[in-house]
Specification:
This protein is α/β, with parallel strands linked by helices and 291 residues long. 41% of the residues lie in helices and 17% in strands. Helix 6 runs parallel beside helix 7. The chain binds glutamine. Belongs to the protein N5-glutamine methyltransferase family. PrmC subfamily.
């Protein structure tokens, strides 16, 4: 990297060089990584890179890019390096205190939104909880899309709640969300008062978590991923607690991992408090949301 001359390096040349550099060193998604980081240093979008591909980089821009590349070489996720991740076409702040929002979680928004849409005709106000809100993506998107919803966002991490609040402020819904620290639902009084509970709780079995690539395992919070032996420790507790907080006809919508939907369906059936579950598949056709 140090041998790279600082002048005459155009955007395209730098991109080509850094892509093969990252790829040769086993960094995943070398091209998107290089593009996102370079765009971040230049203060523009990824598309801008290609619109100005023959523009030479300045000294400061090159040195910024080298610093960020170095972090990516250590497998740090690009989202933590730039502090940003898009979700539901909105820009969210992310830090290592929270899980990086995944695209498949948008399915949980869809399921929740469809339910809220149905409620809209009947009630002036619906109340929903996002358990383990993390960066707050679910709470913020649902609050934004459904102005009649009163949202409660729970997390056991204070840092996560602070970040979720920041994200809510950036998207103009801070006033509409209560942020509460606690383990699952324990901080709330068990009164059947909510219409909807959504959660992207940790569900990765511990043995699988141990085998995750460094990008995830060494950087993202274990608390948000590791769901214990079969991955369902947290979901099991949530399924047990949820009926105490839901109104009759309320909905519990959970994101689950590959191969877990049948087990979660059984958990829901077992308690006797829920009607038969509905399962939705994500864009990879993996059963992803159980409600
Ligand atoms: N989808 C995440 C992953 O595969 C896991 C999220 C979770 O445990 N809730 O890394």
């Amino acid at each position: 990297m140090t041998s790279a001359p600082s002048t005459a390096w155009t955007i395209l040349k730098v991109l080509r060089w850094s892509c093969s550099y990252l790829e040769a060193r086993g960094v995943s998604e070398p091209r998107p990584s290089a593009e996102v980081l370079l765009a971040h240093c230049l203060g523009g979008s990824r598309l801008d890179l290609y619109l100005h591909y023959d523009q030479p980089l300045g000294e400061n821009e090159l040195s910024c890019y080298k610093k960020l590349l170095k972090r990516r070489l250590a497998h740090e996720p690009t989202q933590y390096i730039t502090g940003r991740q898009e979700f539901w076409s909105l820009d969210f702040l992310v830090t290592p205190a929270v899980l990086i929002p995944r695209p498949e979680t948008e399915l949980l928004v869809e399921v929740a939104a469809a339910y809220l849409q149905g409620q809209r005709a009947e009630e002036t106000s619906v109340r929903l909880i996002d358990v383990g809100t993390g960066s707050g993506v679910l709470a913020v998107v649902l609050a934004k899309e459904h102005p009649q919803a009163q949202v409660t966002a729970l997390d056991q991490s204070w840092e996560a709640l602070c970040l979720a609040r920041q994200n809510a402020r950036r998207h103009g819904v801070e006033e509409r969300i209560r942020f509460i620290m606690g383990d699952l639902l324990a901080a709330l009084r068990p009164e059947a008062q909510f219409d909807l509970i959504v959660s992207n709780a940790p569900y990765v079995p511990t043995a699988e978590w141990l085998r995750l690539p460094s990008d995830i395992k060494d950087y993202e919070p274990r608390l948000a991923l590791d769901g214990g032996g079969d991955g369902l420790d947290v979901i099991r507790r949530l399924v047990q607690a949820a009926p105490g907080y839901l109104k009759a006809g309320g909905l519990l919508a959970l994101e689950v991992g590959q191969g877990q939907s049948a087990a979660v369906e059984q958990l829901l059936a077992h308690g006797g408090a829920f009607t038969p579950a509905e399962i939705r598949r994500d864009f990879q056709y993996i059963p992803r949301v159980v409600s």
